[in-house]
Amino acid sequence: MELVGEEIDYTFVIQKVLVLLFCVGLSWKMIIYMCNLLNIEKDPIRVLITGAAGNIGYAIAPMIARGMMLGPDQPMILHLLDIEPASSSLEAVKMELQDSAFPLLKGVIATTDVVEACKDVNIAIMIGGFPRIAGMERKDVMSKNVVIYKAQASALERYASEDCKVLVVANPANTNALILKEFAPSIPEENITCLTRLDHNRALAQLADKLSVPVSSVKNVIIWGNHSSTQYPDTNHATVSTKSGDRPVKELVTDHNWLKSEFITEVQQRGAAILRARKQSSALSAASAACDHIRDWFLGSPKGTWVSMGVCSDGSYGIPPDLVYSFPVICEKGSWKIVQGLNIDAFSREKMDDSARELAEEKELAYSCLNA
Questions:
Q1: For residue 170, pLDDT beyond 70
Q2: Neighbouring residues of 162: CB distance < 8 A, sequence distance ≥ 6
Q3: Crossing angle, helix 87-99 and helix 55-65, to 10 degrees?
Q4: Which of 26, 69, 104, 249 fits a disulfide with 238 by CB distance 3.0 to 4.6 angstroms?
Q5: How far is CA 352 from CA 142, 175, 201, 225, 263, in A?
Q6: pTM
Q7: Residue from 154, 150, 156 nearest 178 by CA
Q8: How far apart are CA 222 and CA 326, in angstroms?
Q9: Is pLDDT above 50 for 299?
């Protein structure tokens, strides 16, 4: 009887082992299957670059194609748009992108046709615009850009993807974005932004240089207002990462007069300084900042950090609605929200209001050009 009992026990053990082996094998197949699923290539995102044959366009196109804007696993198709006189240069940009053999770049459309350029795009980076040249009145520049952005807004309205996100880079960036919002009403206003990240990055760099620290250790500066000489680079809430933890910039920079004068002027006038030194406007830094703007918008800003974006005002901090104004924002899951509850001192209030007044004047001028 004991022998029979032992045989039954071994049979039971063998059955258990076989079941276990079966489960392990099945689990391994499931792991392989899930890994294969994760390795499925994402659908390409269509990215429009206007003014693509210009200096900023030439700088930003390879950055996007290399994955600096949308991440290392996101394929894209680039739509390059420029005016007819630049068509030869535009075609050359396309050829160079093809010759670079970027793995993430799944196609390049180079065109002077705004409809073809806007077809099904998910992201629009609006770099093209009419620059102010010597002897031109401000109203003349505004009237030309109003015409350009009215036409491009209408094309985006009709042909772009319904979830299209727009970044306006061409100056006057805030007001160009406002015009675009006016003539592309089906694009949600939260999807229309302008670039003040360049000013934000300049402010970070100036503080890092002043304190002799890596720029990555400085965070939470703010650019309030217009992308112009009235912008207000605010350090009241900025911090620096140190071995003992985050410390306020105002504790580390003991010369508060520098923070309220030279620092602000340096950031406001940095573009002009580059123009004087290079004989051309900022291109590499503007392209990099545009990539930063879209990357954080799509993939999220770092935890505990805010960034500056020109967005449609909702009345926060007493800024009139219906202006495109630079605020501190936090980005998450493809959306942004304005940072609330920050203390605004009297000095900051005056600077913020000055920039808001300038934007209101620009808005009035733009609408007068539309009605002319």
A1: yes
A2: 186
A3: 20
A4: 249
A5: 23, 17, 19, 6, 16
A6: 0.88
A7: 150
A8: 9
A9: yes
Report how far residue 124's alpha carbon sits from residue 130's, in angstroms, rounded to the nearest whole number.
18
pLDDT digits over 111-168, tens only? 999 999 999 999 999 999 887 666 666 677 888 888 899 999 999 999 999 999 999 9
Task: Report the C-alpha gap between 132 and 336 in whole angstroms.
Answer: 31
Contact 362, 172 (CB under 8 A): yes
Please name every residue paired with 239 in a beta bridge, in sequence order, or none if there are none. Answer: 219, 248
How many CA atoms are closer than 13 Å to the CA of 167, on its beta-carbon side? 27
Kindly compute the dihedral angle of the four CA atoms of residues 9, 14, 20, 26, in this order, to the nearest 10 degrees. -150
Q: Which residues are catalytic?
A: 227
Q: For the ranges 179-183, 243-247, 335-339, 366-370, which has the lowest average pLDDT?
A: 366-370
Residue 349 structure tokens: 């209030």
Nearest CA to 369 among 175, 188, 103, 169? 175
